[in-house]
Design a protein that fits this description.
Blueprint lengths: L8 H4 L6 H4 L17 E13 L4 E12 L6 E6 L2 E9 H5 L9 E3 L2 E3 L8 E6 L8 E9 L6 E4 L10 E4 L19 E9 L5 E4 L12 E11 L5 E4 L2 E6 L2 E5 L1 H10 L3 H12 L7 E5 L8 E2 L4 E4 L12 H8 L7 E3 L5 H20 L1 H21 L23 H17 L1 H14 L3 E3 L1 H13 L8 H9 L13 H14 L14 H9 L7 H11 L7 H13 L6 H10 L3 H11 L3 H14 L5 H11 L1 H6 L2
Parallel strand pairs: 1-11, 16-17, 17-19, 20-21
Antiparallel strand pairs: 1-2, 2-8, 3-7, 4-5, 4-8, 6-7, 9-10, 10-14, 11-13, 12-14, 15-16, 18-19
The structure holds zinc ion.
Zinc ion binds next to helix 7.
């Protein structure tokens, strides 16, 4: 199945699935949207929605303001997936001309849904009469279905405060499961919203939030900056707010709010550091919403309000690079956005590079380089598993779920590419280039090719003889890590290698090392162990450092992986609890993979997964289903 955006949407929907693989990829064409963006562009989205936490339904109306780029076009095509469309109407003034003053009358328009595609959903095709107006509006009356992938409904049992909770995760193409719209990152729109809830709960969005608003069941939001659809976000639940700085604060459930505010106290310093390097922060406020442990990813860069997993709250700020990363998206991704999912590395690679620079500025070079080395290790692990065509930055995702682009490649290989340019051209030139890049493309969505053109004009050609255009293309389109990459090194981690070697040889006893180690050093120590350790060795480490009871979710994941690989039963009760409470894929997927390697482990995995599965998000369920019951996952495809 492939998608055209050229006005031939319906004609090209019938092409066989193999056709896409044969033709060259068209840069800037979004293969994951039905929207005919060459003909119509949505510029403003107005939501009026009721969130029913008990019934797990969102229902209401979206009004879309749009421009007709092609005056001959009479069919507006929107993206939807698992949505029930009740009615489509158009402003009477748009159809008939003038009506009674101060009165908006809406008249129904004919529409139909195209046959659904399993990944992309259904095109909603709306017939429109010809019009000469510059801006028109249509309204869609709709409700969501229980299968909506972007909506995570938590039952009272699944939250700390025992109150029902909703959060959205629109990236990559989930926005269409709760709003009918042009669901492609190349369309940017402002939005406003009225959200109706039961009383007592708080609604927050990726928009201007009023932390002091009365909880009377009605909330208004304005997002004055034009953003792509995957950044529209909503959460509703029993939330508290605590300020952490002049333009920063934390939203979380009551039991979590103090710890969260303490953990993320440096956010204002991070913003100041980033502004010094990359230009002004253009989103007024930066707040953090701490979700429940079922949140499937580390963080989501929803503008003005990052959504963050509680698993980064370790008590010692050791995992706050996630905050630096989501904040970095305020420049890389939210301000200058990828035009299609093929260009994801422009969001994630740049954000990872900026993250390193922010961490360096706020916590020092040692911390940033340790994190870069750990990132390189996970990149190498992914490269060992990925097909060559999926090891490239500008990835071909035609006929595939864009979710597949989210390996470490766009992140870590992207970070390496930008670090390479930084090293080759020198810090001053490269920083000036980045500041210029963010200014030049501010509030625009761009392709890899547009990035390359800007790079050529402002670095490659301005300082000739340093990096060639071919070298750039090799980074973007060739598999693996280029031979001339500038790899991160960390002396603090080399010291850990020495300690590990000595301990394995029996020459260094526990407690004689590691007492002053940073979390990154522990991760490096544990993640680089040989395949087999003795029960005595594991027991020795566990007794000395209390690893089974670690409060650091990353170190715990690393330790539990070792425990499973070596059948260290003393950690299995903790392992069960860990798998049942945490839904973040990066943390739990490796544990299920390790468990499934032995008959007793797979029995344990299946038993625990049955209990844990209802608490996971749909994306996590899909990922873990494929690990724990591969046969069942294949059947359902
Ligand atoms: Zn990111």
């Amino acid at each position: 199945m492939r998608v055209c955006l050229t006005g031939l949407v319906l004609a090209c929907m019938g092409l066989p699935a193999t056709a896409a693989g044969l033709s060259p990829i068209e840069a800037g064409l979004d293969y994951h949207s039905f929207a005919n963006v060459d003909q119509f562009r949505v510029t403003h989205i107005e939501l009026d929605l009721r969130v029913d936490l008990e019934g797990k339904v969102i229902s209401g109306v979206v009004a879309l303001e749009f421009k007709r780029l092609d005056p001959r076009a009479t069919q507006l095509v929107l993206d939807t997936k698992d949505l029930m469309i009740n009615d489509v109407s158009q402003k009477a003034t748009d159809v008939l001309g003038a009506t009674a003053k101060n009165q908006t009358i809406w008249v129904s328009r004919p529409f139909h849904m195209e046959k659904p595609d399993p990944i992309l959903g259904s095109a909603l095709v709306i017939d429109l009469p010809p019009s000469r107006k510059t801006v028109e509006s249509i309204r869609v009356d709709y409700e969501t279905l229980p299968t909506a992938a972007a909506l995570q409904w938590l039952t009272p049992k699944q939250t700390a405060g025992h109150k029902a909770f909703l959060y959205t995760q629109s990236e990559p193409i989930g926005a269409r499961t709760w709003i009918p719209l042009q669901d492609t990152p190349q369309v940017r729109a402002t939005y406003s919203a009225k959200i109706h809830t039961s009383s007592g709960v708080l609604a927050v969005m990726s928009a201007e939030n009023d932390s002091k608003v009365k909880r009377k069941g009605e909330f208004s939001f304005v997002m004055p900056q034009a953003i792509p659809s995957y950044l529209i976000a909503l959460a509703v639940g029993e939330l508290e707010f605590k300020e952490t700085g002049p333009r920063t604060g934390v939203y979380a459930e009551k039991s979590m709010i103090k710890a969260a505010a303490k953990e993320f106290a440096d956010t204002e310093s991070m913003i100041a550091a980033a502004e010094k390097l990359f230009g002004p922060y253009r989103w007024t406020r930066y707040d953090i919403l701490v979700l429940g442990p079922s949140f499937p990813v580390a963080g989501m860069e929803n503008p003005r309000l990052s959504f963050i997993t509680p698993t980064v709250i370790a008590g010692d700020k050791s995992l706050v690079s996630v905050i630096a990363h989501e904040l970095a998206h305020s420049w890389a991704g939210n301000l200058v956005t990828q035009a299609t999912w093929r260009d994801l590395w422009l969001n994630e690679g740049l954000a990872d590079y900026l993250e390193s620079r922010i961490m360096n500025a706020v916590y020092g070079e040692q911390r940033a380089s340790m994190e870069a080395v750990l990132g390189l290790k996970s990149l190498r692990e992914d490269l060992a598993k990925l097909k060559p065509q999926d090891q490239v930055l500008a990835i071909d995702l035609r006929d595939r779920d864009p979710e597949l682009a989210f390996s470490t490649v766009p992140y870590e290989k992207g970070r390496l590419f930008l670090s390479y340019l930084d090293a080759k051209f020198g810090r001053d030139r490269f920083d000036a280039f980045l500041r210029g890049y963010f200014d030049h493309f501010a509030f625009k969505s761009i392709t890899t090719e547009q990035f390359n053109q800007y790079l050529t004009e402002n670095l490659l050609d301005r300082f000739p003889g340093i990096v060639t255009h071919e070298q750039v293309l090799a980074w973007e389109n060739a598999p693996g890590i280029p031979a001339d990459a500038v790899l991160p090194v960390s002396s603090a981690l080399l010291q850990v290698d020495d300690a590990r070697t000595a301990w394995l040889a029996g020459k260094l006893q526990p407690k004689k090392f590691g007492l002053d180690w940073a979390a990154q050093q522990w991760l490096y120590f544990l993640d680089n162990m040989p395949a087999a350790l003795s029960a005595k060795q594991l027991e020795g480490l566990d007794q000395a450092y209390g690893l089974t009871r670690s409060q650091n979710a990353e170190i715990e994941r690393s330790w539990l992986e070792l425990a499973v690989r070596n059948n260290y039963q003393a950690s299995y009760a903790r392992l069960e609890e860990y798998l049942k409470t945490i839904g973040r894929r990066k943390l739990i997927a490796p544990l299920y993979v390790e468990l499934m390697k032995t008959p007793s482990g797979s029995e344990f995995a299946k038993r625990v997964y049955t209990k844990a599965r209802p608490g996971y998000s749909l994306d996590t369920v899909t990922a873990i289903d494929a690990i724990v019951s591969p046969a069942a996952a294949e059947e359902s495809e």
